[in-house]
Design goal:
By secondary structure, the protein is an alpha/beta fold. It contains 13 helices and 14 strands.
Length: about 375
């Protein structure tokens, strides 16, 4: 973006905020004044192009909008207003663009406007969903050293089925048929993998194999799950307000979900003590799906045996381990290849071995 457009957009933005002008009128006023002040008349000859650039800069999400519109871009992140990166097919690259810091903060505020979430010194982190389903994560100083750190994880508009994933090579035909049958039988499935491994895509594909008559209740930190069924309630967490009250945690949502007559409960990702509440729900015979960050199927089970211990000092491995071994039926482990492709590396069955008091994790569908 040229320095001229940056300067004009700053003036126009201030008039929109302070004077309540509509976007088109603010652009007209600012551009007309600039043309009058240009002794050589160069601006008038470039009027059409500059007006279009200025309008694009001020509308939607300004210079970030083309990146959001680019279907090949999976994620956008900024380490500072002049350090902008994107990922395409799992491969990251730096962009030669710079965004005015004041504009960047305005764009983030605009993204958060309809989410009910705030970003300030008392709450320097924020997770939110944009209107298109993309996930926004922001951290501000003094948690970061000096610049705002912004991540926007985009999600595909298409909801992939297991059949679709088989067609693009993420899973093979046998795995797709096997998982479809396991879902129909009401198995409890844990989807594991590293960041960007395709866990949420796989979770949604599994979810869309359930019966159309099933009532689904999903809970997550920010809305990411996509489902085509008719009987679905989606809930997300809420941050505390300025007085420090009003927070709705993932643990609370899991408990509330159990009161909503679900046929299946879905947890977007288990990270902390909510894993204990999930185990309680699954132990009652309610089928469920969830994701977890892990390096392998075995590591996923080991982690799920550890996280519930965060729920309280009275929670012990003597309860957690056999519960995990009895409740979780399968682990679907996803991995992103160096080429950027996402594949299912392993499908493992999970069983509690009473004779050895251990959990057996055995590959069943490669």
């Amino acid at each position: 973006m040229s320095e001229l457009v940056s300067a004009l957009s700053t003036i126009a933005r201030r008039r929109i905020v302070s004077g309540g002008l509509e976007l088109s009128r603010a652009i007209d006023e600012v551009f007309d004044e600039a043309v009058e002040a240009d002794p050589l008349g160069e601006l008038a000859s470039r009027e059409t192009g500059l007006r279009a650039e200025l309008a694009q800069h001020l509308s939607a999400y300004g210079p970030l909008q083309p990146l959001l519109d680019d279907a090949e871009i999976e994620e956008i992140w900024l380490n500072s207003n002049s350090e902008v990166f994107v990922a395409r097919a799992g491969v990251s690259s730096a962009l030669d663009i710079s965004i005015d810091q004041e504009l960047l903060q305005t764009l983030v505020e605009k993204m958060l406007r309809n989410t009910g979430r705030r970003l300030d010194r008392s709450s320097p982190f924020v997770d939110a969903s944009l209107e298109d389903g993309s996930r926004l994560h922001v951290v501000i100083p003094d948690i970061t050293r000096s610049n705002w750190s912004i991540n926007i994880r985009k999600f595909p508009t298409q909801i992939y089925s297991l059949e679709n994933l088989a067609q693009i090579g993420s899973i093979n035909k046998f795995q797709a048929e096997f998982l479809s049958e396991q879902i129909r039988q009401g198995r409890n499935i844990l989807v594991s993998g590293a960041t960007q491994a395709g866990k949420t895509t796989m979770l949604c594909a599994l979810l869309n194999e359930v019966s159309q008559t099933d009532r689904i209740v999903s809970v997550e930190e920010t809305f990411e799950i996509r489902f085509q069924g008719k009987d679905w309630v989606a809930m997300q967490t809420r941050q505390p307000n300025l007085e420090g009250i009003g927070e709705i945690s993932l643990r609370r949502l899991v408990k509330e979900a159990l009161r909503m007559r679900p046929d299946r409960i879905v947890v977007g990702e288990v990270r902390q003590a909510e894993s204990f509440d999930l185990l309680i729900a699954l132990n009652s015979g309610l089928p469920g799906l969830c994701t977890i960050h892990a390096n392998s199927a075995s590591d996923a089970i080991a982690k799920l045996c550890t996280l519930p211990l965060l729920a309280g000092s009275n929670i012990t491995s003597a309860f957690v381990n056999p519960t995990v071994g009895s409740c979780i039926d399968l682990v679907v482990h996803c991995r992103m290849l160096p080429t950027g492709e996402r594949v299912v590396e392993e499908i493992a069955s999970v069983n509690w071995n009473q004779s050895t008091s251990t959990i057996d994790v055995v590959s069943v569908a490669k």
